[in-house]
Amino acid sequence: MSGAAAFGNIFKVPELKKRVLFTLGILIVYRIGAHIPTPGINSVALAELFAQARGTILGFFDMFSGGALSRLTIFALGIMPYISASIIIQLMTMVSPYLARLKKEGEAGQKKITQYTRYGTVLLCTVQGSGIAIGLEAMKSPVGTAIVPHPGWSFRLMAIITLTAGTTFLMWLGEQITERGIGNGISLIIFAGIVAGTPAAILQSLDLMGTGELPVLLMLFLVVLMVVVIGVIVFTEGGQRRIPIQYAKRVVGRKMFGGQSTHLPLKVNTSGVIPPIFASSIIMFPATIAQFVDHPWMQTVSAMLTPGTAGYSVIFVGAIFFFCYFYTAVIFNPVDVADNMKKHGGYVPGIRPGTKTSEYIDQILSRLTFYGGVYLSLICILPDYLIKYFNIPFYFGGTSLLIVVGVSLDTMQQIESHLVMRSYDGFVKKGRLKSRRG
User: Fold this and answer.
1) What is the CA radius of gyration of the chain?
2) Residue 63 · residue 194 · CB < 8 Å
3) C-beta contacts of 91-97 below 8 A and 24+ residues apart
4) Residues 209, 219: contact at Cβ < 8 Å?
5) Which of 54-68, 95-109, 124-138 has the lowest mean pLDDT?
């Protein structure tokens, strides 16, 4: 079946059609909001300031916000404060008995944790919005035009309220996509923001080629590099380490059950695109405030957190490895898996059931997570140095490519599942998309 026919099957399933159209509608609302400016800003002077931000942390943050930061729209803070709040709450569940108890209470406890995450998002938005508002009052465009024509507390309060409300609304949109649309809403919003900047990046590349700043051979090399990186991402995200499992024969009544062989698939990159997103969120929070605060110490922090520098690379790679292990531990528990296998008469050949099996699975999972961390780090860091030394558009960064490809695979897998459940042909002619959740 052709790809067009497979795509047409989406609209033959009423529920799936409704979910896809709902998701597209929410993303359109997001893109409209990304063009509504915050009151009290000289947009022309701000655009001149951001014209020099390519390759800096401001340009990196602007990529994740879909260009909303460079225009200082109501969605300028993007969804990153919500992600930062989620990380903080998840970490606190490991040290707070109250939050740990809530986590074990099922849906009711999860609703309470989600509520605390929302409160944390508002708090982080207030802090980040305050830093941006105060910093913008002291900033001027390259030609000396004030970014804020009428500074003062009236502007600061308006900016804080607008930016906080924008991120809160964006958080709600993401939750709606997750609940009533297709896939992870937060990831899709980040995906939409990155993709929205692609046409501008292409035009910028053509302009650089026209002026001779970007040689044609270098551009061809970059295109080939992007294709190779995409291929590596697709290949690695589908990679699995299959642990063989044997089920013992059991007699129930007059029938015999079990005896078959199967496997436990462990993904090479169990955590998916979550570690780079979490790592970027953690770095962006202090870096954004430092960029707007005119203080020598804060400017040193801002320079250290600029993509392509040694300090940024070390912090970013360290954060990626941390969140690889952290997120894998959150979504996969070897002890539970080993216990379930033991209850159903399953065992790994050569390994004793129970504790020894959980230790064996944990050992393999730890090694795979390390390889996944190396893979994510190389994909996200190496292109930053190409950007820095060859003066190419920032949208060619490895982090953006990883998120775009990873979220695309996740979304396709979600749609594929709906089609297969209803006996329709999906996107893949031979075989189905492997679940990216292991």
Assistant:
1) 24
2) yes
3) 91/326
4) yes
5) 54-68
CATH number at residue 339: 1.10.3370.10
**Per the confidence metrics, is the pTM higher than 0.85?**
no
H/E segment holding residue 265:
strand 261-267
With beta carbons less than 8 A apart as the criterion, state whether 403 and 233 touch: no
Spatial separation of the C-alpha atoms in residues 114 and 145, rounded to whole Å: 43
Q: Is the pLDDT of residue 104 over 50?
A: yes
Count CA atoms within 13 Å of residue 327 on its CB side. Answer: 24
Name every residue whose Cβ is closer than 8 Å to that of residue 228 and which is 6 or more positions away in sequence. none
Domains identified in the chain, total number: 1
Q: Are 2 and 41 in contact (CB under 8 A)?
A: no
The C-alpha atoms of residue 238 and residue 434 are separated, in whole angstroms, by: 7
Residue 101 has phi, psi (to 5 degrees) of: -70, -40
Give the range of the structural domain holding residue 273, as residue numbers without chain letter. Answer: 3-421
Calpha distance 133→127 (Å, rounded)? 10
Residue 379 counted as domain residue: yes
Does 190 have pLDDT greater than 90? no
Between CA 436 and CA 92, with CA 282 as vertex, the angle to 5 degrees is 80
Tokens of 98: 């109250």
257: helix, strand or coil: strand
Q: Which residues lie below 8 Å from residue 289, measured CB to CB, with a gap of 6+?
A: 127, 128, 131, 132, 135, 298
Whether 227 maps to a domain, the answer reads yes
35 in any annotated domain: yes
- Whether 438 is covered by a domain: the verdict is no
Q: What is the pLDDT of residue 8?
A: 67
Residue type, 199: P
3-state SS class at 220 = helix
Euclidean distance between CA atoms 28 and 158, whole angstroms: 25
